[in-house]
Amino acid sequence: MRERSPGAAGWELVEGEVPLGRAPLLFATGLVRHAFTTRRGGVSQGPFRWLNLGWHVGDDPAAVRENRRRLLQALDLAPEKLITAHQVHGTAVGVAEEGVVGRREGPAGENFAGVDALITAQPGLVLAVFVADCLPILLLDPRRKVVAAVHAGWRGTAGRAVVRAVEAMQKHFAVEAGDCLAALGPAIGPCCYQVGDEVAAEFRRTYAGWRDFLRPAQGGGWRLDLWEANRQALQEIGVVDSNLSLSQMCTACHPELFYSHRRDGGRTGRMAALIGLV
Asked: Which residue from 131, 227, 252, 271 has the fewest beta carbons nearer than 10 Å?
């Protein structure tokens, strides 16, 4: 990675053969290797061009394999150290230790099945979640050296998947929420994300401050701000605002940079958010 160009607040794009986004908040610690991928830098064609990392979307498997190779090479990572999960839009958390490296539970060979957040305190392991509008969240406790990667669409956000991840970090590694840094990556923004009354009702039921991230949309429905909802969830458990970084880069607004499930009618690729302790 070479020349750096600016992104939105809390996110910057580092140019190279495989351009990668990063959060200055995490980068400044020197404790982790992390990235938010874009769609640029790969070999996939058609609706999946270029750096599709998802096995399950209908892309040529050889192209996905090459895309993953390029990504891992750009990050100087060994393929066997990449820890992934078969995501189900839930709130379950997988604890990654050295023993999970060879485990294959998911339908595409993922290390975990039915999991939407991963945590580890093991240096060298790199956690990854895959997205195409849903919000990727990377967490770091710099004191106890514990990291997490979280996949949070509207269901995961309503169920507070990121809070479940912090609770698992507390349970397994004695993490304090107030010590955690949280980087909220690119996702579909409230400018483009309209949901119906049933989704809005779920948030009104579970979030006291729902008016801060749900606004009536013109013509009916609601505009949902995933960044603000997850920020609120993290603040409720003691993560201070100065430890939060929001990209505010809308995946639907930037077809040159990001895949978007909603914008592209469901036929599109997948990006990744990755984090590992150095």
From this structure: 252
